[in-house]
Structure formats: C-alpha cells, structure tokens
C-alpha cells in the first residue's frame, strides 16, 4: 500500500494535520496503535485546554471549531499571577487587547471529538487502527513503515505524531533535550461558593503551584503541581481534606470549595527535539515539542506547527516539487523552531524560577512580578506571549 503522506498517531495533532491535508490531491493515511473506538470516542482526561485566538482561527480553517458546542466553551477574561504569600498580583485584562477574552477553555475530550467528527467527513482518508508502528526505513524516494501486525506501508512523507514519549523519534535517531521536573500535575474540577468572574489565576506558592481555570461562574478546573512524593500524598487525601486544603490555599478567595469528579495526574517531563525532520520523516505535536503545561501552550504550539507544515506542503504542491524533499522539511523546521524555542525555554525557566525554594529566587521572582506589573512594554510582551501573538 502506497501513500503520499502517512501520519503516525491519531492524537489531536496528527488528526488536525489530516484535516488540513484532506482536501488536497494527496493520498493520506493515518496509523494508530489504539482501537478506532478509543480515539473516536475519547474519554475525559481532566485537561481543560486554554486555546489562544490564533489556535481558534486554525481550528476554524480546518473546519473543526464549528463542531464544538458553544455552551461548552468558557471565556478567560482576565489572568492573575500571584507569588508566594503576597496578595499583589500580575494582572492581564482582555480589555487591553482587541479580543473579547484572553482565550477560551475547552475540555481536551471535546476538542478531540470535534476533530474526529470532521475527519469522518473525509472518506478518502485511510485509517489503520490497532496498528502499532515499530520501524521506518527511508530511501531516496520515500519510506517503508513496518507495523507490528506485519503489514508494510509505503509513504513519500511520514509524519511522526506519536506523542512526547515517541518511540519512532528515538528509532530514527532524533535526540531530544529532556527535562524531568520530578513533579506531577493533578487536575480536577471544584465547585465553589463565590464566582470566579472568568478570571484564570496562577498561584506560585512556595511548595506548589496552583492554577484556577474558570469553567462556569461557580465551577473551576484546578491544576496543582507538586513534587512527586507530595503528589502521592495529595492523591491519598479524602475529598473533605482536599476541599479544605484548596480553600485554605486560595485564602478563601472562592469561598467554600467542593471537589466534583475524578482526579487525573500527569508526570512533568518536557522534551524538545534537536531536529524536526530526518530523511523523509517529520515530527509534529508533542513528539516535536512536549511543553510544560504551566503556560498552557502545548496544544496551541502543536496547532501552529501543523499550520506551518501544511502550508509548506501546499506550497510544494503548487510549485510541483517533492513534498518530502529537504527544502520543504528544512523550511518547516526553521519556522517552527523560531516560534517554539523561545516559548519552550521561557516556560522551563519560569517553572525553575517559581519552584525553587532558595531565598534569592524568592526575591528575584517577587521583583520580576512587580517590575512586569509596572513596566507596560514588558506586560504587553507577556500578553503577546500568552496569546502566542508574536509571529
Ligand atoms: C494536564 C495537562 C494540561 C494541558 N493543558 C494544556 C492547555 O491548557 N493548552 C495547551 O495548548 N495544551 C495543554 N496541554 C498539552 C496538550 O494536551 C498536548 O500538547 C496534546 O494533547 C498532544 O497531542 P499529540 O497529538 O501531539 O499527542 P498525543 O495526544 O500523545 O497522541 C499521540 C498518538 O499517537 C499514538 N501512538 C503512539 N505510539 C504509536 C505507534 N508506535 N504507532 C501508532 N500510533 C502510536 C497514541 O496512541 C496517540 O493516539 C496540557 C497537557 C496536560 C498533560
């Protein structure tokens, strides 16, 4: 079986690229190790994805945004960053932008369902499910993709979208810059007595970070990041103990807190690939850049990468040049690196600065927040970074 483009991994990044290429003359296939039901009907994974306006435009362009029920979308009108025990905060307001909000929150499960709904309308896309890739061999004309079920699929361009722990990336010999923060992020939802007023808050406390994402007036998604051993202790607390802890951590800002539903925990390991392409294969999504979720940029960057790649592929088609040639893949690599590297490094820097307990770090972080609050250009730059508006 021969295809022009084979995408390995039917996660949100792989499927978004498939949607973007579906209307071209290219023969596109998607290979996914899980069953069709698992990715067409994804379970709730607790993640509420903060989408930037640029991401929404990309989702509109690929026909996915209209599949998301507007009742499920929550607006973030303001963002506050608080440090330690101080009640001063760095403040961002959508009124300082031309948009109606800083961004929108949508559950990951809903984004995945919406992408899948769109994918189903493209009958010419070929799916290989319950098919795990274990090897790729490339030559001058393309690649052979070997599946564990002994099938062999041929492709001109292979897109690797198998997530941040990508085994295919490793097999291709692409090295990554990895950082294990030895922390875990636990996400869950809580009802609260007082309104969140559509404000997203990030509390950089001295032994944990706590993010409050506004879902409805009296319902928020809570994201708590703790050292791994502390995270285990947190997960063993009773619901009553969690209610009390979060209420105290927030100094009663949202009133009485009540945990609703399950808790989901994720280890914090970030990766950045040293190359985004090799031979006739190209990396997208978390397989290329696996961000720390603290700045909520992971999927937003993935979409920007997908957009850059689909653009380069379409330009190659117009010029009638090979879509997997070095020039095309190199241009994608360069453009996506310029966009993603500063954000990746800055995010890891913020995590290091705000999780270090040494007194000097506490002084630096307090000073930085104060400075950013009064220096308008710095604040505008942070807003641009938050909204990924800088390119
Ligand atoms: C707690 C948390 C909160 C987050 N919040 C935000 C946020 O607010 N904003 C934001 O922008 N991002 C956020 N993110 C990041 C975002 O969720 C991820 O960037 C995104 O889901 C990654 O999608 P992906 O398709 O690249 O990878 P994945 O979803 O990991 O998909 C990879 C796919 O490849 C398949 N696969 C793997 N190996 C093989 C193989 N060998 N053969 C075939 N198939 C294979 C897998 O089964 C899977 O379906 C958050 C992440 C976390 C953990």
Please give a structural write-up:
With 391 residues, the chain is an alpha+beta fold. It folds into 2 domains: 2-76 and 101-178 and 273-359, FAD/NAD(P)-binding domain (3-Layer(bba) Sandwich); 179-269, D-Amino Acid Oxidase, Chain A, domain 2 (2-Layer Sandwich). Helices cover 36% and strands 31% of the residues. It is built from 11 helices and 19 strands. It has helices at 12-21, 36-40, 53-61, 108-119, 167-171, 228-235, 239-249, 298-319, 326-355, 359-374, 376-386; strands spanning 2-8, 28-31, 48-51, 74-76, 78-83, 89-93, 103-107, 126-128, 133-138, 143-147, 152-160, 176-192, 199-204, 209-216, 219-227, 257-273, 277-278, 281-283, 289-290. Strands 1, 2, 8, 9, 10, 11, 17 and 18 form an 8-stranded mixed beta sheet that branches. Strands 6-5-13-14-15-12-16-19 form an 8-stranded mixed beta sheet. Strand 1 (2-8), helix 1 and strand 2 (28-31) form a beta-alpha-beta unit. It is globular and about 60 Å long. The relative contact order is 0.17. Residues 8-14, 31-34, 39, 47, 49-50, 108, 132-133, 161-163, 167-168, 185, 187, 266, 285-286, 293, 296-300, 302 line the site of flavin-adenine dinucleotide.
Quick description:
With 391 residues, this protein is of the alpha+beta class. It is built from 11 helices and 19 strands.
